[in-house]
Design a protein that fits this description.
The N terminus is likely disordered. The chain is mainly beta. It contains three helices and eight strands, in the order H-H-E-H-E-E-E-E-E-E-E. Helices cover about 10% and strands about 40% of the residues. The longest helix is centred in the first third of the chain and has 10 residues. It has one domain. An eight-stranded antiparallel barrel has the order 1-2-3-4-5-6-7-8.
């Protein structure tokens, strides 16, 4: 059960209510944040997850603030669903995110993410930690603390996940 909760802490990808822009169909990540489809594999997998056998992750964040995350380990798939809220932190281009997972277990994770929009496709750096139910000694990263600030830096960079955005290609 602790392993499941720990994995859920890392996977929880609930990003918060995006600010509405004048153009709701915008694809500018500085306006829509994490909305879209994201993939992670290989060296982009957080070392903490790789050590648990996770080899790839697909995450979809919808405009209606719902999400679906699928993680894969030796061919087995785990699916996480829930809602998210995202807000700009006011620190550089870092956003705050709160994930309220509803399945397979109910929990809340809090963290930060930052999208590098200079790359094509976009790349996101993402770090979250489970806050409810609490895990002893684990505190979420903060925008002020930067990436690697889970539990006041105790985890270093092993909890930092990188995703690449799925880009729609025209025929």
């Amino acid at each position: 059960m602790k392993k499941l909760l720990f994995m859920a802490m890392i996977f929880s990808v609930a990003f918060a209510a995006c600010e509405k822009s004048d153009d709701d169909s915008s694809t500018d990540p500085q306006k829509i944040g994490i909305v879209g489809e994201w993939y992670s594999s290989g060296s982009n997998i957080a070392p903490l997850l790789a050590n648990l056998g996770i080899d790839s992750i697909y995450a979809k964040f919808n405009n209606d603030n719902t999400y679906l995350v699928e993680s894969f380990s030796q061919g087995a798939k785990t699916t996480l669903t829930g809602t998210y809220v995202q807000t700009k932190s006011g620190v550089g281009n870092i956003w705050n995110i709160t994930l309220n997972q509803s399945s397979p277990t109910s929990l809340t994770s809090v963290g930060i993410f930052e999208i590098d929009a200079t790359k094509n496709p976009y790349v996101i750096q993402y770090e979250v930690a489970q806050t409810e139910p609490p895990i002893q000694g684990v505190t979420p990263p903060t925008a002020q603390g930067g990436f690697g600030s889970t539990s006041n830096g105790a985890y270093g960079t092993i909890n930092i996940q990188k995703y690449i955005k799925k880009i729609a290609r025209s025929l």
